[in-house]
Design brief:
By secondary structure, the protein is an alpha+beta fold. 29% of the residues lie in helices and 17% in strands. The chain folds into three domains: 13-75, no CATH class; 90-132, no CATH class; 140-222, no CATH class. It has seven helices and eleven strands. Strands 5, 6, 7, 8, 9, 10 and 11 form a seven-stranded antiparallel sheet that branches. The protein has a two-stranded antiparallel sheet with strand order 1-4. Strands 2-3 form a two-stranded antiparallel sheet. A hairpin with a 4-residue loop joins strand 6 and strand 7. Helix 1 (13-19) crosses helix 2.
Length: 229
């Protein structure tokens, strides 16, 4: 079994530079070089086993420069789960923010929140770490089927003019959910379609969008209301 012990050397580089007649800017690099040689030559491991013989042949010492200690811990076996547990153990959650997040957003198999989720708290609310499932196959085919042309759904170039039930003439990209519209070129006077979404259509992928660029194609998702209700 591998155990990792983090040893920190707190060295005043100004004193180091003065003692070894170095320029202040050279001190940090010299400290790192000395520690690296002490590790690679086995000096640090020998010092450990001299005092604790039972550790003989067990100690492997590597030196990480400032900012790289985490890399060394990961190489030594540290996992993301270990980090979550450690940070969660240090945080307070007197208002049970994690519990509230689970009540509001937990959806098994889609959005899951661990008991020891990390919190980023503020006076107004909090962000809570969650696991969100992403299907590798994607949902593009489902979106395509849901928003096919017909039954009130149609694709247009932006800028295409349609009529709204309240008497406006607008480009399709300016429609909003809840508007009712008809295409004066193809629909009769009593044919109105309630808008349920406006989608940008790049390369067959649909995403929610409003006020898109003039050179795009948009898809108007609607429900069929042929009786003009």
């Amino acid at each position: 079994m591998k155990f990792t012990a983090l040893v920190t050397f707190d060295i005043d580089t100004a004193d180091w530079a003065s003692e070894f007649d170095l320029a202040p800017a050279e001190a940090a690099a010299d400290v790192a070089d000395v520690l690296t040689r002490a590790a690679s030559d086995g000096g640090i491991a020998q010092a450990i086993t001299k005092e604790w013989p039972m550790m003989r042949d067990a100690a492997t010492v590597t030196v990480s420069p400032p900012g790289k200690a985490l890399d060394a811990l990961i190489d030594g076996g540290l996992t993301f789960s270990d980090c979550v547990k450690a940070f969660a153990a240090r945080q307070d959650d007197p208002n049970d923010v994690v519990g509230a997040a689970r009540d509001q957003y937990q959806d098994e198999g889609s959005v899951e929140i661990d008991d020891n989720a990390i919190i980023s708290d503020s006076d107004e609310g909090a962000y809570v770490m969650a696991w969100v499932w992403v299907d590798k196959d994607g949902d593009e085919d489902d979106d395509e089927d849901e928003h096919e042309d017909g039954d009130g759904c149609a694709s247009y170039d932006t800028g295409y003019q349609v009529l709204t039930r309240d008497g406006r003439t607008v480009g399709v990209e300016d429609l909003r959910e809840g508007d009712e519209y008809r295409d004066p070129a193809t629909d009769g006077e009593d044919q109105w379609y309630p808008v349920t979404g406006i989608y940008l259509v790049p390369d067959g992928v649909t995403v929610d969008v409003y006020q898109v660029a003039s050179s795009q194609t948009v898809h108007v998702a609607s429900s069929d209301d042929s009786d003009g209700k």
